[in-house]
Design brief:
By secondary structure, this protein is mostly beta strands. About 10% of the residues lie in helices and about 30% in strands. The protein has three helices and eleven strands. It has a seven-stranded antiparallel β-sheet with strand order 2-1-5-8-9-4-3. Strands 6-7 form a two-stranded antiparallel ribbon. Strands 10-11 form a two-stranded antiparallel sheet. Strand 3 and strand 4 form a beta hairpin. The protein starts with 17 loop residues before the first strand and ends in a 26-residue tail after the last strand.
C-alpha cells in the first residue's frame, strides 16, 4: 500500500463537533468546537482550542468556565450554524431554538437538547499559535435520564451522536465491539445435555 506525503494539516478524524456554551444563563452564548477531547482520567481533564479572535474566547477567558455539550443528528444544523455565525452579532441559541439551562457547578449554561453535558473549569490557557487551548477540569456531568437504564448504566450510543470528519458531519453507525473485546475470554461452553434415546 502506497501513501502520499502531505504537509502538516488538521486531518485527525473523526472528532466530536461539540456545542460549547459559555457566558451566563442571563447572557448565554454557544459556539461549535471540534478541537476537543479528554486529556486525563483522574482528575478528569478536557480541553477546547479556540481562536482568540472569536467572541466566545473572551467570555471563557474572563469567566474561566464553559460547558461541552455533545451533539446528535437532531442538533446537526444547530451545530453547523453555531460554527459559522458569531454571538457578537446575534443570539445563536434563539436562532437555533436551543434552550439554555442552569448548570450545577459553573456559571455557564447547559444546552437542554444535548444528551450529555460536561461542566468545565479552566485550569490553564496555552497559547499554541492560531488557537489557544483552554485546559479544564470536568467538575460535573449532566446526563439525559432517557439514556440511563434502571441499573444506572449509560447507553449514549442510543442518542444518535454525530462526528465531524474533513468538513462533513456523520451520524455514528453500527457498533463494532466494546472496550477490551479483543482480549476478553469467551465463556466456557456449557455441558451438553445427554441425548434422549
Amino acid at each position: 500500500m502506497s501513501k502520499l506525503v502531505w504537509n502538516p494539516g488538521t486531518l485527525l478524524a473523526p472528532v466530536p463537533p461539540a456545542l460549547v456554551s459559555c457566558g451566563t444563563l442571563e447572557h448565554p452564548n454557544v459556539l461549535t468546537v471540534a478541537w476537543t477531547g479528554i486529556v486525563c482520567t483522574k482528575p478528569t481533564m478536557t480541553y477546547v482550542s479556540i481562536r482568540p479572535s472569536r467572541y466566545s474566547y473572551k467570555l471563557i477567558r474572563e469567566s474561566g468556565e464553559f460547558v461541552i455539550n455533545l451533539t446528535t443528528k437532531e442538533l446537526v444544523r444547530a451545530c453547523d450554524y453555531c460554527g459559522v455565525r458569531s454571538g457578537a452579532n446575534e443570539d445563536k441559541l434563539a436562532a437555533c431554538k436551543l434552550t439554555a439551562e442552569p448548570a450545577s457547578k459553573v456559571s455557564a449554561p447547559l444546552i437542554a437538547q444535548s444528551p450529555l453535558s460536561l461542566e468545565c473549569r479552566v485550569k490553564d490557557v496555552l497559547p499554541l499559535g492560531s488557537h489557544d487551548m483552554f485546559l479544564a477540569e470536568v467538575v460535573a456531568v449532566n446526563v439525559d435520564e432517557q439514556y440511563v437504564d434502571k441499573a444506572g448504566k449509560l447507553h449514549l450510543g442510543k442518542s444518535g451522536l454525530i462526528a465531524y470528519a474533513h468538513g462533513e458531519y456523520f451520524e455514528l453507525g453500527a457498533k463494532l465491539g466494546s472496550f477490551g473485546y479483543s482480549v476478553r475470554k469467551k465463556p466456557a461452553p456449557g455441558k451438553r445435555k445427554p441425548k434422549r434415546k
